[in-house]
Amino acid sequence: MGKDLVVLGKFGAVYGINGWLKVISYTDIPEGIFDYTPWQIQSQGKWQPVQISSWKRHSNGLIVKLEGVSDRDQAQIFVNAEIAVTQASLPALDDGEFYWKDLMGLTVVNEAGYDLGVVDDIMETGSNDVLVVKANRTDAFGKKERLIPFLTDSVIKIVDKTQGRIIVDWDPDF
């Protein structure tokens, strides 16, 4: 995948006979995926832009019609293809805001300097996001992973993307 591309969703099944496709959106607000253009689709091993001619909500999902796709057979080649956009088309963030993808793989260290592991995943819970930190093989506390709430005022002290680490106020035995 191109280094400057960010996956925002993927195509699901073909919908109907006129070339519509279901869209599985990974954005916070599902229809937010349509705010980012142009979409980049991987086809025959290369990323290429596609234009959206129309989209709409359908029951509890989203469907899209791409320019130049007018029947089921043409739409079929897009089934399960990832939908990405260039990094440049994402809005700039304020200080203290992060895209999840920027946190993946960062080392998590507590204030005492104990290496808690690396960010392996991020879960959304109702109240706050939670870092899933994969512990090191040699973890002194025998942990495989730690779930650390992403609370910037209390738990998360510093996110230093340059140094590739997150400093947290967290007990390693937790």
Q: Short summary of the structure?
A:
With 174 residues, this protein is mainly beta.
What's the order of the H and E elements? EEEEEEHEHEEEEEE
**Gyration radius, rounded:** 20 Å
Provide the β-strand percentage band. over 45%
Low-confidence segments, given as residue ranges, are none
Structure class: mainly beta
State the end-to-end distance. Answer: 36 Å
**Strand order, biggest sheet?**
4-3-7-1-2-6-5
Q: How many β-strands, per DSSP?
A: 13
Given the structure, what is the number of helices?
2
Task: Please tell me what the overall shape is.
Answer: elongated
Which bin fits the share of residues in helices? under 10%
Mean pLDDT, all residues: 90
Strand count, sense and barrel status of the largest sheet are: 7 strands, antiparallel
What does this structure look like?
The strands form 2 sheets. A 7-stranded antiparallel β-sheet has the order 4-3-7-1-2-6-5. The protein has a 6-stranded mixed β-sheet with strand order 11-10-9-8-13-12, with no helix packed on it. The radius of gyration is 20 Å and the shape is elongated. The protein has helices spanning 72-76, 100-103; strands at residues 5-15, 20-25, 39-43, 46-50, 52-58, 61-66, 82-86, 107-110, 115-124, 129-134, 145-149, 156-160, 165-168. The protein is built from 2 helices and 13 strands; from the N terminus they run ββββββαβαββββββ. Strand 1 (5-15) and strand 2 (20-25) form a beta hairpin. The protein has 174 residues and is mostly beta strands. The longest helix is centred in the middle third of the chain and has 5 residues, at 72-76.
